[in-house]
Amino acid sequence: MAEGLAHSLISDLVTPYSAGIVAQGLNPNAVKVMAERNIDITSQTSNTVNQLPTQDFDFVITVCSNAHETCPTFPAKTAIIHAPFEDPPALAANESDPEKALDHYRRVRDQIEAYILKLPATLIAQTSN
């Protein structure tokens, strides 16, 4: 969801890539709630960090605790920023009502959206430190 939102909201300022420690596939609930924002993420893929393009990254933003704790080493110039969002699949796992399950995805999507809208200022502040 973060990659799709970044492409939609700030692609003129950043080139977003998304990768995890483990590729888990494109989540159909994430696709649904992003479509509610008219953002199509169906062409995105679930990648691992090793599948990212070979290039230097200025910033790596981890969005869950597991990724933050197990984040691979990047070159010294790469700033790693942790933005702790809850994991929608884990939140929705115990919901028997599909609509309630989607509500978890919507809430986290909205939190990520708010974060991404502030991201340019965050990155500027990070580079001036």
Automatic annotation (TrEMBL):
It is an enzyme of class 3 (hydrolase). Keywords: Arsenical resistance, Hydrolase. GO terms for molecular function: protein tyrosine phosphatase activity. Residues 1-122 form the Phosphotyrosine protein phosphatase I domain. One of its GO terms (biological process) is response to arsenic-containing substance. SUPFAM superfamilies: Phosphotyrosine protein phosphatases I. Signal peptide: none annotated. Pfam families: LMWPc (PF01451). InterPro entries: Ptyr_pPase, Ptyr_pPase_sf. It comes from the Bacteria. Its EC number is 3.1.3.48. PANTHER family: ARSENATE REDUCTASE. This is Protein ArsC. It comes from Poriferisphaera corsica.
